[in-house]
Amino acid sequence: MIGRERLRVMVVAPERHALRQPHAGGLEAVVWNRVRWLRSRGHDVQLCAAEGSDFLGADIDLHLPSPRWHQSRDASDTDFPEGHRRLMTDAFARVRDQLDSPATRVDVIDNHSLHGDPILWSRDIGVPVVTTLHTPPLADMVIASNALTGSSPHRFLAVSQYTARAWSAEGVEAFVFTNGVDTAQWSLGPGGGDWVWFGRIVPEKAPHLAIIAALRAGARLKLAGRVGDAAYFDREVRPLLGHGIDYVGALRQPELSALVGAASVALVTPVWSEPFGLVMAEALMTGTPVAAFDSGGTSEVLAGIPGTAIVPSADTDALAHAATALVEQTRLGLSRRVVREAASARHSLDHRHREIERVLTVAAQSAVPAHELADAEAVGA
To answer: Model's pTM, two decimal places?
Structure first.
């Protein structure tokens, strides 16, 4: 740590899924990589995350309760089972008590939770909090954000301009800090194989539209990812499988990178306000061209990178034509290495992590001393 300050950091993850491979989604992959990198830099990192996560220590107060569904078919990526929010409130109260103790206090909190409680720790106990906004505005987080005082040592980061604007409309201002991809994990692939779609298999990601586009183009397609909505999968995806359309399941990162790198084109089909779309940057890092629906932050991720095409949302005919054209461009000489180099220049994780290290270091310097916090509470009493 010569020349750098060694930080005591608590990383707060979303609790819906454990942080481990195969990653449940892009958010989990981002936080998993953050913890791994900060520790590699010599920082003292505690993880507050779902039971079963990699990197969790022995302190059970930092083990968050994942949603427990009565039936697996009820599991959802958007809702919570009855009683879960009360469990989270109790869990966060235990974490807050720990942070309020001089013996276990940290320098800064790197917050990726989708709840409001960790945001308010900056106001209530004076610990610096950096919250990354990974989603469209969530009511609980907006309420907490608007309850901060001017002296609260807190700052917000947003994963795209689009996401920053959406939160700004709710009164929450954020600096744009986009996600990144590990160039070592996502290596250059040979291409030339089947088309590919990968990600969470949920209605808002609409893999069934990727299948329809591939069928219209007469192309073979492989789908990879965790089924986050079993009813949707059975209703919209399963009936379309076969005849060159294959579902290969949820893959660990090395196998997923190999699959994507062997594809001739990747289809990305969000039909919601996509905050970032990490799968696009991951595919491009392997050299695989990307054809995507224009939704949310899609245009920001792909802007200026060769081997990309953006079409109107839900237009499967346009997607089929765009993907076919990208495959033809590659056949005629579009270099996969050039695609990767452009993606690396824009989305390299190493560059992003060095920036976040600076952000966390600066934030740590804004801690409110305990006596000042006590004085402020006394004045407001």
So the answer is: 0.91
